[in-house]
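Tip: read the tokens left to right.
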């Protein structure tokens, strides 16, 4: 493991380490698929997203979209977008928490429309724009807040390897996720995808995600 240079943050250090991994030929193929699926998805779901935006607005939220800083590929910080699902000022109240406590507090802060959007995963649809911009992929580890990244990277030294690929809207960890899983267990699923990523695996994860969206009973216990 490389040493930290003076005044270098942990995110910066791990970003530097992630650049030691060369892209694979399949990454270019997956990027083309990302662009095609995101473009088609944005057009096909535009009427649905308009209804989601209206529901969010009627729920009393000041803004339709939530914008939050996330750590992306190579440690780049980008702004992730999704439909707002929480009450006004909720981010300030739950911001310092993560894990089980964050999950519990988030449930308490959800608006009525937000509960529906989260349950159906429709709140994630605006992230197709992040995919088009090249900040995210359809499939990959979920993007994480910079503050959480710092904390988890200290607890789990291998956490930096998530930076090798673009974060995703869906992924292995999301398909297998339960509330009882530890961060290390979730990371193991992310690593499995990063190590084995292929066109076939990408398409299998996309297909399984779509099945879960249309048939919620297929979701892992506790999700």
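Filled-in amino acids:
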């Amino acid at each position: 493991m490389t040493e930290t240079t003076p005044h270098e943050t942990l995110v910066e250090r791990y970003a530097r380490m992630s650049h030691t991994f060369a892209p694979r030929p399949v990454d270019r193929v997956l990027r083309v698929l990302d662009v095609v699926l995101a473009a088609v998805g944005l057009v096909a779901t535009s009427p649905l997203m308009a209804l989601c935006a209206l529901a969010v607005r009627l729920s009393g939220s000041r803004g339709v979209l939530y914008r939050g800083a996330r750590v992306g590929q190579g440690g780049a910080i980008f702004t992730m977008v999704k439909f707002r699902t929480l009450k006004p000022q909720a981010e300030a109240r739950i911001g310092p928490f993560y894990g089980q406590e964050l999950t519990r507090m988030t449930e308490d802060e959800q608006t009525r429309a937000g509960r529906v959007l989260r349950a159906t995963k429709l709140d994630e649809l605006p992230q197709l724009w992040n995919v088009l911009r090249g900040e995210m992929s359809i499939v990959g580890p979920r993007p994480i807040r910079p503050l959480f990244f710092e904390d988890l990277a200290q607890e789990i030294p291998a956490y930096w390897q998530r930076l090798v690929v673009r974060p995703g809207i869906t992924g292995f960890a999301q398909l297998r996720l339960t509330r009882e899983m530890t961060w290390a267990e979730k990371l193991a699923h992310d690593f499995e995808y990063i190590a084995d990523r292929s066109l076939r695996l990408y398409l299998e994860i996309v297909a399984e995600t779509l099945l879960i969206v249309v048939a919620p009973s297929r979701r892992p216990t506790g999700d």
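The chain has a mean pLDDT of 82. The longest helix spans residues 25-44.
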